[in-house]
Amino acid sequence: MLCALRKLGLFALTLWAAVTINFFLPRLMPGDPADAALARLAQNGPVTDATRAAIEAQLGLPTGNLWDQYVSYLQQVVTLDFGVSFTYYPQSVSELVADALPYTLILVGLVTVIAFIGGTLLGVLAAWKRGTWLDALPTIGGSFASAFPYFWTALLLLFFLGYVLRWFPSSGAYSVTSDPGLNWQFIGDAAYHAALPAVTILVTSLGGWILGMRNTMISTLGDDYVTFAEANGLRKRTVALRYAARNAILPNLTSFGLALGGVVGGSLLVEQVFGYPGVGYLLFNAVINQDYPLMQAMFLMITVSVLVANFLVDILYGVLDPRTRR
Amino acid sequence: MAPSRILRRAALAAVAALALSSCAIQLQSRPDPTVGDDTMLIGADTGAPFFEENFNPYLGTKRIGVNYLFEPLLLVDPISGQEHDWLAESTEVPDPSTIVFDLRDGVTWSDGEPFTEDDVAFTFDLLQQVPAFDGTGIWSYIDSYETGDGTVTVHLKEPDVPARVIIGGVVIVPEHQWADVENPDSFRNTDPIGTGPYTLGNFTPQQYSMDKNHDYWQADEVAAEHLILPAANSDLDVVTKGYDWAFKYMSNVEGTWLAASDTNSYFFPPGGTIALFPNHTREPFDDVRVRQALSLALDRRSIADLAAEGYMDPASMSGLLLPNQEEDLDPSLPDQGFVEQDRDRALELLAEAGWTLQGDRLVDESGQQLAFTITTANGYADWLRAVQEVERQFEAIGIDVSVDQPQPAGHTLAQRNGDFDLIVSSFGGTGTVYQDFNNNLSGEFFVPEGEETGNNFGRYRNDEVDAILREYRVTTDETRLRELAWELENVFYDDVPVIGMYYGGSWGLFSDRKFTGWPSEEDRYSPITYMPSALLVLTSLERVRQEGDD
Question: Which ranges carry the ABC transmembrane type-1 domain (chain A) (predicted)?
Fold first, then answer.
């Protein structure tokens, strides 16, 4: 109980630190949101002082000194009201995040879970059948695929499957004519549009899970209790899964917790390449436009979910491995 | 199978993949057959990645389609500089402080209501009440206005003939719709009513359509029945999906856009001058000999070729965009104001200014090397390529150059604050000679370093220029205006307030498959999709008759 309380206290402290850094980091960037908007406009034609004045009036830039801004920011964090976005004015931040989040949660979330389960199982198999083709194929294939940069795989898939062969749509989350809603037609259409980004993330992330699991599993397999279990004549599957894998999965589980927490951050490059309206794309736009309200809300969301995921994994660890409960 | 063999196969596969990706795959344009022959596909409005529905023409986050919905009183084409009477049938300047807009008869709003002087008055008032909407600052010129009998008469605070273009350039919205809007500054106008050639059709977050307004006052001039504006307009989309019109810089345009279809064409006229702005409040840039020397040290052709892949020309030191503004060019300027590289002359000028070559370093009396920083924006690849070439050319005459690349917002801030030695930026492109020079050189905008300004950020001050600009504001005589333009060009050429490098392009991509009459070398006007001047394109096109058409 004391242990859980101590963890909770640490959690609160980390949260406050993260929230504060969230506030100050964007403001350390040179220039303010009006400068960013002006820089964008200047690309399209001459801008004058009048333009700057109009933009400042439109954005309603933060007033008061940094301390006042910080206090009102803390109020926003508590009430979860982040105001209006600068980039997408007059859209509110909550509206924007609520629009983007489902796409990312389903795309990145689902793929992360699939990659974790599939990769871990393949890792177990590879370690168990060490030295055979069942080991070599997933291990080498996985590290080969994950060695490609994310965006490069994405661009290749997009170019060949999207533009040359035209088997898959080249951008968007659903067809232009499709009406978003909970019906099978829309879900099918959305899945079709999510296929290429999903494959990209899967292909590039699978290798990590396989290798992680395989390597810990191999060292576990050399332990005495595994030999003992084998000597006792237990079924091979029982030894592999109940004895070796259960102990070997701990490091992978930690990474899984982190990965799950990071899901809400979206997959920036993949979403960019495929024009997918998820959180990663939104975050990118928020950063290049110095959109403080949007950035704050999104970084907060990411930090909190990573912290919560970590916290949960910490608790889960205690359940899986009694030694860590002290 | 042994791992080593798998490894070998994997390596083979990788080589095959590389070979496949490096061999040229020629993409062909394959238009969507469901898009009709009377429908134009435009690459103009790019979602992020989806569209927000916002057709308020005064908001920075507006959809580009507002430019085809709403119209100004008069239009200036930014390329030809030509003024077109639009919702005003004529614009008179009885004296330099008064502008009379005589409104066109028979113009109606897309809901059938007549367009009157009350709408213009309402719009002017709106921009005064909501300063956030007054992006061109018309209320810094207007003292008062009055309406009557189909005219709007504007009285200016002080004589300023060129201001008619700015005031006349405001797009007009209907009073009968907007008068009821409670918070205009967050009004998204999702059901827009305009006077323009198109009305809003179907809106979805990934694309919207616009339909021809058959009661448009020049409906006969409008060829396309429908417009489609998709949210995704990547280079690959534009090349493969049969776009009719796009505004886009495309690398190797011959091998991509032109090669995709034999009806494709492009037109890249200069849209602005990419230049080095010296900070006139810092040494040694306050010395005209140093500025002249820096200008002479540049080989502008190689800079232009590197920066814009050979699509754009070196900039003339007349300060004009050539050949767009050829008519305004002083014929006595040598070689149309183009300055050739002359290192010997540059070194002579620098020696007069106190910098002599010692070995390969240019030093002053105390042995200090001439050193400065060039500031450019991170991520603007063409600017960076230009700066790297400039750096090389300056270093060749013994100057120690460093390059600073803040993010675009940081670059804008440095520019506004005067926190730079030399900064890369662009100027010109308004279409009028006066505006181009006034924005950049007028002493009225002078502020010391540390204070912010959006105009004349080089902090240039020259009484001669200010006198010419003042006279410009009160002059209506065409001949005198031309002489004044020539005088400005000569000051620019001799005093080098800004070091022009090369022209930034206005990137028009067109297809003659369904429509013809696009801007071209022979018919020079602006290919821009995202400004009111796009109305000129939409009213200049003609349908290409297909076989089987009657």
Answer: 101-313
Q: Using one digit for the tens of pLDDT, what is the confidence trace for A244-257?
A: 888 888 888 888 88
**pLDDT at res. B390:** 97
Integer Rg of chain B from CA:
26
The answer on pLDDT for B19 being more than 50 is no
Kindly report, residue by residue over A281-325, the tens digit of the pLDDT.
Answer: 999 888 888 888 888 888 888 888 888 888 888 888 777 777 776
Q: Report the C-alpha dihedral over residues A156, A157, A158, A160, rounded to 10 degrees.
A: 80
- Which tens digits make up the pLDDT trace of B283-318? 899 999 999 999 999 999 999 999 999 999 999 999
What DSSP letter does each residue of B457-470 carry, written as one string? Answer: TT----HHHHHHHH
pLDDT, residue B15, reads: 47
pLDDT higher than 50, residue B12: no
DSSP B369: B
Check CB contact under 8 Å for A37 and B435: no
Backbone Cα Rg of chain A: 24
| Residue B192 per-residue DSSP state | -
DSSP A152: H
Residue B445 touches chain A, beta carbons under 8 Å: yes
Tell me the shortest Cα–Cα distance from B361 to chain A, in angstroms. Answer: 33
User: Which residues in chain A have Cβ-Cβ distances shorter than 8 Å to B428?
Assistant: 46
Please list, residue by residue across B73-91, b when 16 or more beta carbons sit within 10 angstroms of its beta carbon and e when fewer do.
Answer: bbbbbbbbbebeebbbbeb
**Residues from chain B contacting residue A37 (CB–CB below 8 Å):** 60
Residues 6+ apart with CB under 8 A from B112: B215
The SS3 of residue B305 is: helix
Q: What is the pTM of this model?
A: 0.87
- Provide ipTM, 2 decimals: 0.83
Q: Are B536 and B75 in contact (CB under 8 A)?
A: yes
Between CA B259 and CA B252, with CA B46 as vertex, the angle to 5 degrees is 25
pLDDT reported for residue B7: 46
Give B477's Cβ-side CA count (13 Å radius). 5
What 3-state DSSP class applies to B250?
A: coil
Please state whether beta strands B39-43 and B226-230 pair in parallel, antiparallel, or not at all (unpaired): parallel
Out of B27, B135, B427, the one facing A50 most closely (by C-beta) is B135
Bridging pattern class, strands B371-375 and B400-404: parallel
Any A CB within 8 A of B453 CB: yes
DSSP string, A24-62: HHHHHSSS-HHHHHHHHHHTTS---HHHHHHHHHHHT--
Rounded Cα gap, residues B114 and B105, in angstroms? 9
